[in-house]
Amino acid sequence: MMRVAILISGGGSNMTALADSMTGDHPARPVLVLSNRPDAGGLARADARGIPTAAVDHRPYKGDRAAFEAALHDTLCAAQPDLICLAGFMRVLTEGFVARWQGRMINIHPSLLPKYRGLDTHARALEAGDTEAGCTVHEVTPALDDGPILGQARVPVRAGDTPDSLAARVLEAEHRLYPAVLRRLAEGDRKRLDLPQR
Ligand code: GRF
Fold first, then answer.
1. Is the CB of 11 within 6 Å of ligand 1?
2. Per-residue pLDDT tens digits for 138-182
3. Chain centre to alpha carbon of residue 129
4. Could you give the dihedral angle defined by the CA atoms of residues 15, 36, 103 and 181, in that order, rounded to the nearest 10 degrees?
5. Is the CB of 171 under 6 A from ligand 1?
6. Active site (annotated) includes residue 109
């Protein structure tokens, strides 16, 4: 059984999509939901599902990323995960931390990478006049939003779309893509998955 730790910073809708998919004959189970914000709404959602939770608040570290990440690393090691899923985790991890978990850490990003690494992906797609948007699950490497792609899902950009309306459509696609990629990985299949436009 693959042991999965999920890192969040906010409401955790991707975390719940992952957690709710890991039931029955699924070859993975969530062993920890960890947040850098003790007030993250996703912690209560994980708790309600009986998943162990923890918080390592980044603020008391006052920018000392090495010390913050050492605490994060220790909390993760205690749960012994085989795989870490970043799900709306909004801290940029250092090269050193990524190197310790390389090949065992994946992330979901709300754009069709390599387009629009970083933030404000939906506003940038609308500004560019794109007719299609989407999301990407990729392996985490030291360069931000740059690792090998494990899956993508596409959505149409509609007339009158705002960053919020597009974000809502992409988030729905995220909730389909991330569990599908996780299931493949847990079954030992690293082949890229492309979900067609809906
Ligand atoms: C998602 O759009 C994710 O792609 C991005 O942050 C958002 C988090 O949503 N990194 P949630 O916390 O999973 O609801």
1. yes
2. 999 999 999 999 999 999 999 999 999 999 999 999 999 999 999
3. 26
4. 10
5. yes
6. yes
